[in-house]
Amino acid sequence: MSISKQPIYPTVISSDPYKADFYEGTLNTLSNTASPSFSKEQYSISFLNTKGFISTLIGISKNVPDDDINDALENKVYEELALDMAIEYHFKYIEAIHKSTETDRFFHVFVVDPLTLEEEYAHIVDTIKYIDQIIPVPLLLKSLYIKELIDSSGVHCFIYFQENDAFFCIYNQQEYIYAKSLKFSLKQMHERFCELLGEQIDLLSFETMLAQEGLNTSHPDYQKSLIKLFGEIFLHISDVITYAKRAYEIKTFDQIYIGTDVGNVLGLDEYAQTYLGIKTTPLDFNYGFDTHGEKVDQIHQLMHLYGRLETDERYDCNFTIFDRPPPFTKRDSGKLILVTAASLAAALLYPGVYWGLSYVEEFHHAVLTKEYEQVHVEKMDREATVNLKLANKSVAQTLLDEQKESYKQKQDTLVQVHDKKVNYPMKAKIMADFTRSFNHYRVQLKTIAYTEDLNNTKTFTFGLTSSNTQDITALLKHLTNTKNNRYIFNLELISYNEEQKSYLSELKAVIK
Asked: How many domains does the chain have?
């Protein structure tokens, strides 16, 4: 089995799209850079905070082929999250290995609005031109297990407060389980702290207080407001933990790691352990980077750690749409330069090549001229033969057309004779047959007529008279019952002749 290898780059550059800062790092060093620049020799990585994506757990049948998993998950995501079908959301997924059942496979699906990617990372792309990887921030924690900074395999919670967001994340058996954005980012903490304090202090002063004094500040009013603030924060976190236990069938948490962008806040881990009743330690690891004494937040260090992982050690969950520029020979500008260079070289070689080719062409022309003369004679002979055959064909075609016309006339005559012979009604026989029926029902025949119309409809019209109408109607009923398979009968009116003291009617019999 082949092992997937991550291309080795001399440097990794991490970017925080929310604070617009960059850190460059080698295998051992890490430092902030105020003026990053494009370089094809560096690996670029950034992250999505938990407000920037939607995550959900989706189950599909194990009968779905691997090639169809993407489409199956996409359909279920749009349905279960009630997403707008008019928007083409970006979504990635990783398999929830420990959640699998006998019939279903489960996947953690991350969904991102396309505008989020286009807007949040625009200034990064303007600066360094590309981003190799954009990963949801909770998945960066996988590197802590890969690099054995955490070597246990229990159920671990990670709580991290950033300036613009805060997230709660669970790993079980060193695999991602769940993540949620918390209400209290550092900015939201600052705003709520000012409300509780009843006066306004700037964000930097608030962050400095947390970084230097922690929760045990020497200012009594600040201390009181901080205790109220973190009471609200951990009440919210307790609700999240309760939900996670129920939703993911977690009996207990083995460890909580808690940290902030401003560094280790003194007393925060003890407060969390007391409030939540779970063993808590600071989320503050030694990643092995020489930062030259500079404080670097955990997320940047995690990105550099993650950027150095092999491909098969990472979660396959990359949201970047900002690919590296293609190699020089595949760019339009590169192709143009290569074509221009080739044209210039050809232009320099042209004079010498031209004289040599001119002699070759003159010789070629003489050979073709001689060949043309021979071919032209042969062409004239063949044209004469073709013209003669075309003339003979025209005469034969005329004779054939005359024979066809004669044949058609004879055929039409025979068809008419056959039709008359087979289909022409025997009038005398028909009239004799009808006369017997008239006599039987005491109806006299006064007139008879026979017609054929353009549609070859043959009709006998009988003028009938009788002393009473019952004889005529009885006759019509008899004819309808006995001859309906050969004729269509129509008798519209029976009238009374006062002078002759008789009833008159006109019966029409149409041969079917």
From this structure: 4
Where residue 203 sits, what CATH number does that domain have?
3.30.420.40
Give every strand in the sheet of 487-497, ordered side by side.
444-452, 458-466, 502-511, 487-497
| Residues 478, 410 within the same domain | no
Contact 72, 60 (CB under 8 A): yes
Digit-coded pLDDT (tens) for 388-422: 888 888 888 888 888 888 888 888 778 777 666 65
Question: What's the CA angle centered on 268, arms 267 and 273, to 5 degrees?
Answer: 100
DSSP state of 290: B
Contacts of 117 (CB under 8 A, 6+ apart): 90, 134, 319, 321
Radius of gyration, CA atoms only, the chain:
50
Integer Cα distance of 195 and 199 in angstroms = 7
Q: Tokens 């609005």 belong to which residue?
A: 113
By the 8 A CB rule, do 262 and 211 touch? yes
Residue 381: CB partners within 8 Å, gap ≥ 6? none
pLDDT of 348 strictly over 70: no
Main-chain dihedrals φ then ψ at residue 317, nearest 5 degrees = -150, 75
Same domain, 5 and 143: yes
CA distance 465 to 479: 16
Angle between helices 203-213 and 186-197 (to 10 degrees): 100
Residue type, 417: V
What is the three-class DSSP state of 454?
A: coil
Q: Residue 462: how many CB atoms within 10 A of its CB?
A: 20
Looking at the structure, tell me whether residues 61 and 118 fall in a common domain. Answer: yes
CA 278 to chain centre: 45
Contact assessment for residue 196 and residue 225, using Cβ atoms and an 8 Å cutoff? yes
pTM metric for this prediction? 0.64
pLDDT of residue 146: 95
Cα 293 to Cα 28, 30, 289, 329, distances in angstroms: 14, 10, 10, 43
Q: Are residues 417 and 435 in the same domain?
A: no
Q: Is residue 467 exposed (0-12), middle (13-18) or buried (19+ Cβ within 10 Å)? A: middle
Query: Are 300 and 384 in a shared domain?
Result: no
Q: What 3-state DSSP class applies to 316?
A: coil
Same domain, 438 and 345: no
Per DSSP, helices labelled H in 277-331 are 298-307
44 in the same domain as 127: yes
Containing structural domain, residue 230: 150-284
Q: Can you tell me the distance from the alpha carbon of 234 to that of 145, in angstroms, rounded to the nearest whole number?
A: 26
Rounded CA separation 167/244 (Å): 14
What's the rounded mean pLDDT across residues 286-311?
Answer: 92
Q: Domain check: are 251 and 391 in the same one?
A: no
Give the closest residue to 283 by CA, choosing from 270, 272, 298: 298
